[in-house]
Amino acid sequence: MVRLPAPSRIYGLRQRAEFLAGGGATEARISRAKVFLTSRNGEDRTQVSAQGADIGPVDDPEPTTPKTSDLDGYPLLKALKPLLSENRSAEVFESSLDLLITHLETLGKN
To answer: What span, in angstroms and rounded, lies between the C-alpha atoms of 87 and 65?
Structure first.
């Protein structure tokens, strides 16, 4: 079985910091980063799965939380850590589901 690395291991801290350094409001930059990284992670999983790897969840007996000191070289990530750590997946799922339903209803009328 192939175990996929966590997204933070796939996309290094430097790449995340560079992505977040772009223009715009802080909330917009964080949203863009989350969408991009989620999309890239999904794309990577699709490619690995196409090669026959098992991409199901793997129980990690001792999950670890990265140390804040790991971000010492990345002041922007360190400052944005509370916002980047927010889990809004239920809200995003609900919004996406509403959009999908609306789209399907529109298709059904045509």
So the answer is: 15
Count the domains in the chain. Answer: 1
- DSSP class per residue in 27-40: HHHHHHHHHHHHHH
Report yes or no: 78 and 68 within 8 Å, Cβ to Cβ.
Answer: yes
Global pTM exceeds 0.70: no
> Residue 76 sits in which domain range?
7-58+67-109
The model's pLDDT over 85-102, given as tens digits with 9 standing for 90+, comes to 888 888 888 888 998 999
CB 24 within 8 A of CB 31: no
In a domain, 14, yes or no: yes
User: Could you tell me the two tokens for 105?
Assistant: 């209803």
